Amino acid sequence: MASQQDLKRRIRSVRNTRKITKAMELVAGARLRRAEARIQAMRPYAERMRELMIGTARAAGPASARLPLLEVREDVAATAIVTLTGDRGLAGPFNSQVLRRAFALAREVRAAGTTPRWLVAGKKGRSTLAFRRYEVSGSWVGFTDKPAYADAAAIAHRVVELFVEREVDSVVLVYNRYYSPLTQKVETIDLLPIPRSLLEEGEGEAKSPYEIALEGDIIYEPEPEEILQRLLPTYVETTVYRALLESAASELGARMTAMRNASKNANELIDRLTLDMNRARQAEITQEILEVVAGADALEYG
């Protein structure tokens, strides 16, 4: 059994660790509320962008099929996998689960006879890909916990460049979608080519006043096809930005949950070590009493 001094040192060490985990939990919780507010503020903009694209695509008609970002290629030689991870750890399975899904997707791509190309945001993802000696066509770090629109624009510009120059024939985005502080699920979306179904959504359903206005007697200047050509890269940027916000909130939620569990485990460990220390102290006291009794007996019968 460990001595009282050893147990006291271990208890003191665990208490110090608990202070750190508790502080990290509180910081992550405060930042999570701001991240949730950013997601809520982003949703109306994303919805108006979608409605504007749908209305403009309907006005453009068959001419929209000629746009580069809508081109569906029959022979897919390379697929870009854009993986959104974090810059730091201590967030439970946040990084590992998105990387696991990305590697599974890469295996599926290879099985189909297609070459995967890697793009990654976050130090954790970049270091993992470097450890596996994968060639990375683009990496971005330093903003995953608080992304700005400019960060999303940089990622979107790179993937659009690869797609338009035919270095890749499709682009897939892998990230953690935020549902609650306890629930973050990995999502995989087809970023490029932009699905035609996206521009045909809502047909036969009740339309918003904004969509009805777009279908009215509108004079487009320049032509709807040219407007749509400008809107599509903005849509890619918006989609990446929304995924970055979801990923940031997921990371904070996962870290808050992980630190809460760590603090709970620290409390349980402190209780167990305290019980062991009390037992050790009781054993020492018992041993001292036995030694005193034995010494008294020795004097009495000596």
Quickly describe the structure.
With 302 residues, this protein is α/β, with parallel strands linked by helices. The chain has seven helices and five strands; from the N terminus they run αβαβαβαββααα.
Could you explain how this protein is built, in words?
With 302 residues, the chain is α/β, with parallel strands linked by helices. It has 2 domains: 4-26 and 257-301, ATP synthase, gamma subunit, helix hairpin domain (Helix Hairpins); 31-255, ATP synthase, F1 complex, gamma subunit (Pyruvate Kinase, Chain: A, domain 1), CATH 3.40.1380.10. 62% of the residues lie in helices and 13% in strands. It is built from 7 helices and 5 strands; from the N terminus they run H-E-H-E-H-E-H-E-E-H-H-H. It has a 5-stranded mixed beta sheet with strand order 3-2-1-4-5, with helices on both faces. Helix 1 packs antiparallel against helix 7 and helix 4 crosses helix 7.
